Every structure is written in structure tokens, then in C-alpha cells.
Amino acid sequence: MQVRQSPQDRILDAAMRVFRRHGFRRSSIEQAAEEAGLTRQALYHHFASKEALFRAGIERLYEQALAAEIAAAKAAEEAGASLSDILVAEIGARLGALFAALEASPHLDELFSEHLAHARDLYQAYSVRFGAEVASTIARVRRARKLELAGGVTVEELARCVEMAIHGTKSAYPSMQPVDAFLKQLETMLRMLIAGAMAPVAKKSPRKTGVRK
Predict the structure, then answer these.
(1) Residue 194: which H helix or E strand, with range?
(2) Residue 26 lies in a domain
(3) 43 located within any domain
């Protein structure tokens, strides 16, 4: 059964297509309204300006990415994956949702910069939520699997390092392009990071057996 979209969601879908096609600066309320099959006045009933429309689209995108991240982590945990595999799946799902919304846009650099100009507060708020979700996953898996972190490493610090690895990889791949290379390099960094953060597994000493005379 197909879920019926709300008017706001239909407008946001149309607006994101326009922003992806033309970039933020060259897009207009009129273009978004036409794409959604509405008059400009009808669109203004839902969103007061192009900036408000853009912010709403960004916020919805972040919510979709967060939901994808949570679902991916849950699925990987239920499949019995390792902590590295779970976190790679989780981060990959988050970024995959973001990539899908902006896929093939020739205006990625502009959209990234404009989203910081018009929605920096959303970027900061969701950065905290993404980091908290990673920390929650690490804590949950660590508890369930009885894993130990290396001396001095906390769950929160490891989660923060995971987020820093994402930002660090972004610096080597402007606009996170090409996507495949970016994700492959990020996966390598995450696996190395997580491996280094885990305490060595204690080896069991062989049991000594007494020799009867």
C-alpha cells in the first residue's frame, strides 16, 4: 500500500529536485512551485521564502539520514556483525542517504556552502545527534559483546574520533567526490581506528597438569 505524501513533503521533493538541478542561488520559489504543480501563492502558504524552503529540505534530509543510520546499525547488530562492520554500515547508511538526495548535481560545492550559510544551526545540532547515535551504538555493542576498549579510551572519545575520521576524509575528497573512492577510504580509516581502540583479547594460559609419579 502506497503511503500518501503530505503537501509539505511533495513540495520538498520538488524543491530538492530544483536545488539539485540549478543550485541554490539560481533556484527560485517560482521554479519550485512549478515543479510541485502549484502556484507561487500556494507554495507561500507552506513556506515563507526560498531560504525557509531550503532549510526545511535540509532538516528533512538530516532526519532521513539519521533514520537510515539507526536502521543500518540495528540490522548489522542483529546479523551478529563485528563492531567495525556495524559502524561501517551505520556511517555508510547515513552518508548514503545524504548522497542520494544530491546525486548527480553539478552544484554540490554550492549546495554544501549554502547549507552552512542558511542552516548552520541545523548542521551543528545534527552533528551532535549523529555523534550521540554512534556513541550509543558503541556502548550497546560493547555491553552486549563484553568488549573492552584500550586503556584511556572512552565510548564518547571513540565516537568523536569516528566523526573526526569522516571530516578528515572529506578534506581529501572535496564535496566527497568521487563517492566510491571517498567511502572506500573512509571505511579503511574507520576499521583501523576501531581496531586500535580495542583492548587486546587476553590469551588464556594453558592449564598445567600435574604428573603423577
Answers:
(1) helix 179-197
(2) no
(3) no
**What domain count does the chain have?**
1
CB count in 10 Å sphere of residue 105 = 18
The whole-angstrom separation of Cα 192 and Cα 185 is 11
Residue 8 lies in a domain: no
| Residue-number span of the structural domain to which 122 is assigned | 50-197
Residue type, 194: I
CA 21 to chain centre: 23
Cα(79)–Cα(141) distance, integer angstroms: 12
Question: Which residue, 130, 107, 94, is CA-closest to 21?
Answer: 107
- Span 9-16, average pLDDT: 96
DSSP string, 47-76: -SSHHHHHHHHHHHHHHHHHHHHHHHHHHH
Three cell numbers at 61?
534530509
Q: What is the pLDDT of residues 137-179, one digit of tens each?
A: 999 999 999 999 999 899 999 999 999 999 999 888 877 888 8
**C-alpha to C-alpha distances, 93 to 16, 35, 66, 70, nearest whole angstrom:** 20, 28, 9, 9
Handedness of CA 15, 20, 24, 27 (dihedral sign): negative
